[in-house]
Amino acid sequence: MAARKKKRELSEKAQKRIRQRNLHVGITVIAAIVIIFSVIQFTLWRYVSKVDEEHICKNVFIGKTDVSGMTKEEAVKAVNNTLGDYRNKQLVLKVKDQGADVSIEEMGAEVENIDKLAKKAVGYGKNGSIWSRYQKIHNLDKKKYVIDESFKVDEAKLRELIQERAVPLEQKAVNASASYNGSGFDLTDEAEGYTVDVDKSVKKIKNFMNKKWNYEDAEVELKLDTEEPTIKKADLESLQDELGSYTTNAGWGDRVQNIRRATELINGTVVMPGEEFSVEQATLPYTEENGYVAGSAYENGQIVESIGGGLCQVSTTLYNAVLYAELEVTRRAPHSMSVSYVEPSRDAMIAEGISDFKFVNNYDTPILIEGYIDGNNQLGFYIYGKDTRAAGHSVEFESETLETTEYTKKYVEDTESAIGSQETEGAGMDGSTARLWKVTYENGEEVSREVINNSTYQTSDVTVKVGTKSDNAEATKLVEEVIATQDQEKINAAISKASALK
């Protein structure tokens, strides 16, 4: 019993010694670990503390720019200089198989958030735990650290460049066309076109510059919209009848060139159902560059020379063809004075920004306008379509003059011109009021009569400036006195007598 007790006591002492030894070993190990960790921490701290807080670590890049050892301000300048070196790189704005070159400089390209990027470069390896900082800095010995950059452009400049260089590359839709060949109609096919969507193209270019540009020449496909033709060949297959026509004598002189040019611009026009046609819009601009010359025109009761003078005969002739086709006239005005090529109330004046001739196609199918000037200077307009008027239906138009006012002729002194001089001002045209009747016939019988328009034409009075200047006072007085009589024969006789006194 005593032996067992003694043995147990010895065992407990042994276990106690073992526990004490293990504790000492554990403390020693922990102390060693702490010392080693502290040494490592100190070593890492010594390593990372050598890095200048104000300067960027070695082997750090912002995009293509090596900013190693730079301050934030120096990095910003370096990145901008790099971009400047590539300012002449070209971005090709593609419009189908065509392209427009635009330089990076022209677009006003800049590095986006450059201060933020430079700040990130300066802070690399200087934030976080000592271990993470050490890893970042140590890794720079083997591999460069690149901060991706993005670019922004001046949207206003880019939009302007697209408008100037890319939009002209658009392919406009081509409408189907028709022409009368004497027995039928020759038709051409339509073709789709495409236009540049400027807003979406700007967005696409900005996205490319922001995410993909790498300082090299590049291409960007612009956003295009399909443009559908408004007139299809199938639409024109309904053409079969002459709806109305009219002819006038184009006369002579330079005005004929203007008449011919305006007729060319209108010839071949297709007007779709419900569409309004404007002679002014079809024939503008009235400039020499558009083929017009100076010709006779009315202005303030006078006949003057004006670029495009004579165009009113085109609108007038077309007006009468429109009347016979029974299209809906939406705008028409008479001349200020009557014209020689049609009866009163059958005219239609054109004056840019003031007066226009317009009509609407009130048929259910397209109409075709053809115009020409033949070898005898006859100006004609023909309107074709699908005639839905009843068989035996026809119309005529009658001009009725309601009142006429004769022009006056007045003789006045011209003290600056010599005796014998007579200068005439004014066209010498009577004024009038008139109206135009539309007379409808069915199978040759008149069934209705209605007023289409009422027109007023002013007079163009004549003023004759009679010269009275002479070194002979008696001669001057003789002519001055007879001017008061307003008698042309007496004035002419006085001039002859005064001329003998000079």
Radius of gyration: 47 Å
Portion in strands? 25-35%
| Helix coverage percent | 25-40%
Q: Can you give the mean pLDDT?
A: 89
Q: Span from first to last CA?
A: 184 Å
**Largest sheet geometry:** 4 strands, antiparallel
* Count of separate DSSP helical elements: 12
Number of E strands: 27
Helix-strand category: alpha+beta
How does the overall form come out from the CA principal axes?
elongated
Low-confidence stretches: 39-49
Q: Which strand order do you get reading across the main beta sheet?
A: 13-21-20-14
Give the key terms.
single chain, 502 residues, alpha+beta, four-stranded antiparallel sheet, three-stranded mixed sheet, 12 helices, 27 strands, 30% strand, elongated, G5 domain-containing protein, transmembrane, membrane, transmembrane helix, Glycopeptide_resist_protein
Topology at a glance:
Elements: H1 2-49, E1 60-62, E2 65-66, H2 72-85, E3 90-95, E4 98-103, E5 110-111, H3 114-123, H4 130-139, E6 145-147, E7 151-152, H5 155-166, E8 177-180, E9 185-188, E10 193-196, H6 198-211, E11 218-221, E12 224-227, H7 233-236, E13 241-249, H8 255-266, E14 269-271, E15 276-278, H9 279-283, E16 294-299, E17 302-307, H10 311-325, E18 328-331, E19 358-360, E20 367-373, E21 378-385, E22 393-405, E23 409-418, E24 422-425, E25 431-442, E26 445-457, E27 462-469, H11 473-483, H12 488-501
